[in-house]
Amino acid sequence: MAFVVLLKTFLDVTVFDEEHDSQDEEANQHESRSATDGETDPQKKAKQTQKESKRSRGRAGQSSSSSCNTSAHLTSNSVDKPFTCEECCKSFRRLCHLQTHRRIHTGEKPFFCKECFKCFRDSSTLRRHMRTHTGERPFFCLQCHQSFSQISILRTHVRTHTGEKPFACQECDKSFNEKSSLKKHMTTHTGEKPFACQDCDQRFSRKSVLRTHMRIHTGEKPFACKECNKLFRETSYLRKHMRTHTGEKPFACQDCNQRFSRRSVLKAHMRIHTGEKPFSFSCKECHKSFSKNSNLARHILTHTGEKEKPFSCAECSKSFSRSYVLKNHMLAHAKQKMVSCSSASKNSPALEYE
Questions:
Q1: What is the Cα–Cα distance from 58 to 60, expressed in whole angstroms?
Q2: Does residue 210 have a pLDDT over 50?
Q3: Which residues are bridge partners to 168 per DSSP?
C-alpha cells in the first residue's frame, strides 16, 4: 500500500512538472522571440504590455458576446484564462498557449523531426517523438525498474502492479487500465465501423486497423526481421516470427508444463487435456459444424453443386478434394517419368556399346 501511495505521488509530481515544462517552454519561446524583435527598450516594452492588455480585454469582450460565454463562464475564466479560442470557446491563461491550441483547428504543424520529417503542432510533442530515435527513456517504474519514453506509458504500466482499472464500460461494467482500450471495447457494443477501405469496402472500428488492412492492397511490409530480413505487414507478425530465432516460448500449459511460441498453439494443445472439440464453423444449409473453415468450405461444395474435387490432374484428369493431395499425385507422375527415362537410357545403343 505504501508503494502505491509513493508511486502515485511520484507520478502526479512528474506529470505536473512535464506538463508545465512544456507550457513554460512555449511561453519562453514566445518571450525570447519578442526579445529578439528589439523589445529591450523599457518604453517599447511598456507599450507592448499595454497592447497585450488591450488585446486581452478585446478578446474577453468578444468572447462575452458569443454564445459560449455565459456569466458563470466569465466569472471563472475571464480573469484566470483571458484568452479564448473563437472556434471551440476553450480558454487559456497565456496567449502563446492559445496560439498553440489554434493549430488543432488550422492543421498547422510547424515543428518537424529532422530524422524522419514527421511534423508536430508543438515542440513538446516533437521532443517526446525524438525519444523514438534517441532511445531515451527518462521515466522508470519504482517497482520493476522498467523505463519508458513517456510519462503516460509509465502511468499505464504502473496499473499492472496496482491492478487499477479506472476506465469502466457503462454497458457491461468491464474495466480497463487505459482509455484507449475502453474506446476499442465500446465498438463491440455500438457496432460502429466508421473507417472504410476504398479498395474492398470492408469497414473497421479503428483507423489503425484500417491502416494495417490497407497494406494487403498496397503490398507494403514495413517491419523487417534483423536476423533474416524477412518482411511483415504488422509488428505482431514480426514479434511472433522473432521467436523462431530466439526460441522463446512464452505460453505454458499449466497441466503438463509444455511450452509454446504462440497462444493459438497452446489453445489447440489444451484440447488434449480438456477433450474439447470446438466446432465454430457451421453450414447455413444443414447446420453441420466443422472445426476448421477449410473443412466447411469443402462441405459447402456439396450444396452448391460445384465439384467436390476441384483440383484436377493435367496428366490423367484425376480429381482431388485438396490441393496438397494433387501435388503428391503429380510427384507420382514425375517419378514415373524419371523411371521411364532411366530405363530408356539403359537400353540405348550408346550404353550397350560402352
A1: 5
A2: yes
A3: 175
pLDDT tens figures, 274-332: 877 666 678 887 878 777 777 788 787 777 655 567 778 888 878 877 777 888 888 88
How would DSSP label each residue in 138-207?
Answer: -EE-TTT--EESSHHHHHHHHHHHH----EE-TTT--EESSHHHHHHHHHHHH----EE-TTT--EESSH
CA dist 79 → 20, 23, 40, 56, 177 (Å): 20, 19, 28, 10, 37
Write the CB contacts of 90 (distance below 8 Å, at least 6 apart in sequence).
Answer: 84, 101
In angstroms, the CA 64 to CA 69 distance is 5
Query: If you search the block for the grid coordinates 489453445, which residue do you land on?
Result: 267
**How far is CA 180 from its chain centroid?**
10
- Cell digits of residue 323: 490441393
Confidence band of 39 (pLDDT split at 50, 70, 90): very low
Residue type for 315, please? E
Beta strand segments in 58-118, E: 83-84, 91-92, 111-112
CA neighbor of 162 nearest in space, from 170, 154, 174? 154
Tell me the domains of the chain and their CATH numbers: 75-136 (3.30.160.60), 277-328 (3.30.160.60)
**Which phi and psi (to 5°) does residue 81 adopt?**
-130, 80
pLDDT tens-digit readout, 109-156: 999 999 898 999 999 999 999 998 998 999 999 989 899 989 988 999
197, 213, 224 from 233: Cα distances, Å:
16, 9, 9
- Above 90 in pLDDT, residue 56? no
Q: How far apart are CA 259 and CA 261, in angstroms?
A: 7
Report d(CA 65, CA 291) in Å as an integer. Answer: 67
Straight-line distance from the first to the last Cα atom of the chain, in angstroms, rounded to the nearest whole number: 93
Instruction: Report the candidate in 86, 109, 107 with the shortest Cα–Cα distance to residue 98.
Output: 86
Print burial letters for 193-224: b (CB count within 10 Å at least 16), e (below 16): eebeeeeeeeebbeeeebebbeeeeeeeeebe
